[in-house]
Amino acid sequence: MDVVTALDRLPKVELHCHVEGTMRPGTVVELAGKNGVELRTSDPTELYRYSNLDTFLEIFWLVQSTLGSREDWARLAYESIVDGAAHGLVYRETFFTPARHLDAGQDLADIVAGLAEGLAAAEGETGVRAMLIADIDRAYGAAAGLAMVKRLVELREGASPGAERVIGVGLDSTELGVDPTDFAEAFELAGKVGLRRTSHQGEETPPSHIWAGLDVLGSERIDHGLSSLQDPELTRRLAGERIPLTVCPNSNVVIANAVPRLELHPYRRMREAGLLATLNTDDPALTDLDLGREYQSCMEAFGYRWEDMVAIALDGVEATWLDESDKRELRARVEREAAKLAAELDPPR
Ligand code: HPA
Ligand code: ZN
User: In a 3-state reduction of DSSP, which class is residue 316?
Assistant: First the structure.
């Protein structure tokens, strides 16, 4: 077996993946037709043109706007997991960002129920487990973020269908010109009711935003964290406390245009500095990517060996919000299957 195939089959977890960013191009076209959303073109190579995070987000928002009902969310979640399973995904904590749908009058209860229904159907078929992280969209401001968390708390207290799948909250969308501390109240409420917390920081912003994510918002993980190494004290803190970074090297090149080429991405240096830097795809269907190719391209770009890639997959397990016994079980599965794959590798390792 060649290493490309082996990496595709290696059991992998994913902690930084936006469910809307996994929508198949064919589904975008179908849902747009169904819900009356006009697309410039149905050709994804034409449609998905962007040069930085903010121009990418315009496309992301267009794709999001095709989701009009509970059944659309269910289809999206289902296809997302089926597609991940084809490339070795075994567990995912998936973001969804409902700000514009809530603003347009959809109910969070329907969105959560739809997503949970789709995930459950895909779990039954593929064995891949998936949970949800409700992201606040920075572009909609602090009041909308707090309102979303309050509604989420209501759904949990009322045992609304699917609410138990939402294990945490996050913060995404545009970073530039937004003060992360604006969202302190929403994050505080989330923490108080036992929701886990993460936030996109440092993709286009300096280490000060990562500090704010940790100390003001109480984030247990940082999504991207690309600028971490610019601050030695921050690096020591992140490494010392094993605070996971959910890094998306290909996305940082293709979407944020923050690094000109994968070879120049600090990922390897981040790991060498002791950071718990996991590998993730961010928005795979919008960037023509999958988790297998994320691993393969990084192995090649950073000169990693098979063993390094297995260690990265295992760090992914450590960085999950699974409980300790589930983590232990998943870790054992990755180790067992990695050993089997290694025995079949040609040339042998
Ligand atoms: N950054 C911020 N917001 C996002 C991203 C991202 O990479 N992808 C989808 N929403
Ligand atoms: Zn992201």
Answer: helix
Find tokens 């023509």 and name the residue: 288
Q: What is the pLDDT of residue 84?
A: 98
Burial class (CB in 10 A: 0-12, 13-18, 19+), 239: middle
Q: Are 58 and 179 in contact (CB under 8 A)?
A: no
Catalytic residue among 79, 117, 175, 203: 203
Confidence of residue 164 (pLDDT cuts 50, 70, 90): very high
Instruction: State the DSSP string of 177-225.
Output: T--GGGGHHHHHHHHHTT-EEEEEESSSS-HHHHHHHHHTT--SEEEE-
Fold of 3-24+66-344: TIM Barrel (3.20.20)
pTM over 0.90: yes
Give dist(CA 33, CA 14) in Å, integer: 31
Catalytic annotation on 203?
A: yes
pLDDT, position 305? 97
At residue 42 the predicted structure's pLDDT band, cuts being 50, 70 and 90, is confident
Give the residue, out of 173, 176, 248, 250, with the most ligand 1 atoms within 8 A of its beta carbon, to mutate for a pocket test. Answer: 173
Residue pointed to by tokens 């690096």: 235
Domain ranges (residues) in the chain: 3-24+66-344
The whole-angstrom separation of Cα 26 and Cα 131 is: 25
